[in-house]
Amino acid sequence: MIEFQQVSKVYDGGTTAVADFSLVVESHRTVVLVGSSGSGKTTLLRMVNRMVDPTSGKVLIDGEDISRSRAVALRRSIGYVMQQGGLLPHRSVLDNVATVPMLNGVSRKQARTAALGLLERVGLSAALGKRYPFELSGGQQQRVGVARALAADPNILLMDEPFGAVDPIVRRELQDELLRLQAELGKTILFVTHDVDEAFRLADEVVVLREHAVVAQRGQAAEILAEPADDFVRTFVGANQEGRMLTTHQVGGRTVAVDQAGRPVGILS
Amino acid sequence: MKWLRNNWQEIPGLVADHVTLSIPAIVLSVIIAVPIGRLAHKRRLIGGPVLGIASMLYAIPSLPLIIAILVLTGLSARSMWTMTIALTVYGVALLVRTSADAFAAVDKNVHDAAVAMGHSGTSVFWRVDLPLAVPVLVSGIRVMTVSTVSLVTVGALVGQSGLGWLLTNGFQRGIAAEVATGVIATALLAVILDGLVMVAGRLLTPWAARRHRRTKSARVTARPRSALA
Ligand SMILES: Nc1ncnc2c1ncn2[C@@H]1O[C@H](COP(=O)(O)OP(=O)(O)OP(=O)(O)O)[C@@H](O)[C@H]1O
Ligand SMILES: [Mg+2]
To answer: Most CB atoms closer than 10 Å: which of A147, A216, B43, B54?
Structure first.
């Protein structure tokens, strides 16, 4: 369980990134922070592994104030996936995945064997292990990023727009893969995106942020779509956009859903 | 050429002396400049002045610098250390800026990812920042190596052995062939040491070579396609 207790962050230059933010992320759940650029999402995520220390307030993991833990040890116990380019370019794919276990003292051989298993787990062939990251496609790189984050078998996964830089089709595949993995592994996931569709697909709970990480609304995707708290949320989630406003028609005894442009998009069962 | 035929036996000894003066200064410059460059990159506030001072040091003419070293350290002009210190001052001055640039060129995302994985401060430096800075560092070390090899010739003016002796002696006695030999031998030595540094850099960064080849071959395969279009 991750608990933000009234955290704020003012950076050295005087920028307020986060103002009085509180949130509880229950264990084994996926909470997605969604907000526009600069709303403080990365700052919040990095407070959990102490890459950013809050100016005020506390972050607790399983009830313990993390400011009292050793930052390096804490980070090794938390998986972190970043947007792109987060892989070490000078280490092979296999070594990238094996790094954290090796930092934790696992032998190189053992860590590499485990890494091979992890590559498979995220849908990559073992043969890719020998390559350098720049010899992979963007989608493959992100899979490696996920494998690496899972390598130390952490309870918590922090994911900062992990699929933001790949094309929509690959993004969709990666999202499915994450859902499948999460069903097997049951990690506590804090996921950041500015893609509302992605948030709705992945989240047990969605937190919509406005500037300074002020919570505009939180709840299940359906709740937010059905009852946006205000105009900001309504516009942000596109609740009044073409693709989201569906009407139904009866065709041959079945109910067909049609979007505002009149295109049939599905059938209600 | 008659001069060369009669005096070639002298050259290996002079080359050896030249190398003996060059190598310690090159190594010391790397050892001193890289940490300073890293500091200048990390702490911007002191970084600016540090880089400024470095450029100024390189602008000091060599004879006054050597004399200043003699006065400050009390070493004798014939001591190898006099030259080593002078060469190291220039080497550091030349390499500090490139070192700062080399660390600045390390992808911030990669550095952050390494921290997020749980590398300690020192292990981020040794395992991530430093290896990734190597390609740019090597380019700086190559320039510094060539500069050092040519500066060693100045040592002849204060009585240090090396290829510079061919220049001063040849000039005093009016033997053009001797001067030419000195110039060519110094240039060759610089090219050889430069090549060695380059090869060492390649060996240290097999990944960079593969990335380089990859972008090159990508360009080559792109060509026929554009020719068709
Ligand atoms: N290290 C830093 N120093 C100073 N200001 C910073 C720093 N990091 C972030 N900020 C500022 O804090 C605010 C929030 O930044 P943050 O990176 O948390 O936003 P974000 O929601 O992740 O944005 P994006 O979607 O673009 O990644 C921004 O105004 C940003 O400019
Ligand atoms: Mg961000």
So the answer is: A147
